[in-house]
Amino acid sequence: MSASPSAKFTGQNSFPVDEIRAMFPAIQKAGDFVFLDNAGGAQVPQSVVDAVAEHLVDYNVQRMAKYQHSQGVDRNLDEGRESVGLLVNAYRPEEISFGLNATSFIRLVSLGIAKMLKERNEIVVTDMDHDANIATWLALEADGAKIVWWRMREDGTLHTEDLKPLVNDTTRLVACTVTAHSIGTIVDVKTVGEIAHAAGAEVFLDCVHYGPHGLIDVQDWKCDYLVCSGYKNFSPHMGFLWGRYDALVKLPTFKEDFIPDVPPYKIEVGTFTYENVAGMNAAVKYLEALGRRFLPTGEHSRRDALVAAMGAIREYEMTLSRELLSILKRHGAVIYGISDEDKVAGRVPTICFNIPGITPQDIAKEMGEARIGLRDGHMFAPRLMKRLGLTMEQGALRISMVHYNKVEEAARFDKVLGDIIARRK
């Protein structure tokens, strides 16, 4: 699968955000409501809605039968597998498995790993991850696993030089996020892969939060397993697992006797939401169409278009990150993670913060009343909350933007936050 550099642009006006917003029916219907909780689920373009509806009308049957409706299910799943394979730069489409959500896939892989620990029984986890990518591995202590902690530094990042001394010939797996769903920090997962593989260990990546923000490349990252959730990637609620084909072949899984013992069939046990896979396929094609706008005229592969799309999105979103950080600093916010506007390349526009003297819950409530959606609480990361000195009851606030958000929406957030603070004085 080839790659092509994305076109460069400068300034917000060069990114077609208004045209993009017109493709999202929820944004159009919401009027002046501002979606700033995209880390909790992004909206979907009309093409995704149409794909889901078409599947439900034309192919709402079980797969693997010899009549046209069932054959349509098989065809949609094959197309979805190919599209998602291109999205992550898989070696082959069979490495993609569809299912309920990322958490269930983490558990599925962890149960298989538990049966293969033997003398390699150490699993490295971090204190920056979503609890789904921590508790799932901690559960393997009952199977003889030894948990080794890779700690986040005070600057809100995971430093790979801190990982090196933790990995040795007894390390079975390094499990970490690609981007912190809470504080937005991007992890150097390519170096993680190099360190782990040099010691003969494998790498499991939680890519749920990074998916909508940047280019996924399992070949370049040299990881072994990776999970994503469709609902953050402009598609319906579903999840998918990528795994190296040989790793999936070896992975012990539960399956009925009639299911072939090869991926993806050995992973996709039971019926899942086929219509949501059709939606995920359409979401990938939406990103391809966006990417072609940033490529020169001529023939380009689907992967080229995805590379261009995610490059343009990353560049545009850095302007959003800078704007949000500037706003929060003006209001005296405590920002968790990277707060330097000159270092936004190390984060995505997902920012966790608190305003001294006002609870996150009060701010979230007043924001909601002002038709701005953001999130308060522990962000499903109890260990990170403890590390930040925050309680599970209050936690923090999180604002999260994606490429259909605008600087003008940040300005609206700025004004409402200022009003909330002023009323407390």
In brief:
The protein is α/β, with parallel strands linked by helices and 425 residues long. It has helices spanning 17-21, 25-30, 46-58, 68-88, 102-114, 132-138, 160-163, 189-198, 218-221, 245-250, 274-292, 302-330, 360-369, 382-387, 407-423, and strands at 34-35, 96-99, 122-126, 146-150, 171-177, 202-206, 225-229, 239-243, 334-336, 350-354, 372-373, 375-377, 396-400.
Structure report:
There is one protein chain. The chain has 425 residues and is an alpha/beta fold. It has 15 helices and 13 strands. The protein has a seven-stranded mixed β-sheet with strand order 2-8-7-6-5-3-4, sandwiched between helices. Strand 3, helix 6 and strand 4 form a beta-alpha-beta unit. Helix 4 (68-88) crosses helix 11 (274-292), helix 11 packs across helix 12 and helix 12 (302-330) packs parallel to helix 15 (407-423). The longest helix is centred in the last third of the chain and has 29 residues, at 302-330.
Task: Write a concise keyword list for the protein shown above.
alpha/beta, 7-stranded mixed β-sheet, 4-stranded antiparallel β-sheet, disordered N terminus
Oligomer: single chain
Strand content: 5-15%
Order of strands in the sheet with most strands: 2-8-7-6-5-3-4
Structural category is: alpha/beta
Total beta strands: 13
| Total helical segments | 15
N-to-C terminal Cα separation, in Å? 58 Å
Taking all Cα atoms into account, the compactness measure Rg is: 21 Å
Share of residues in helices: 40-55%
Shape: globular
Compute the average pLDDT. 94
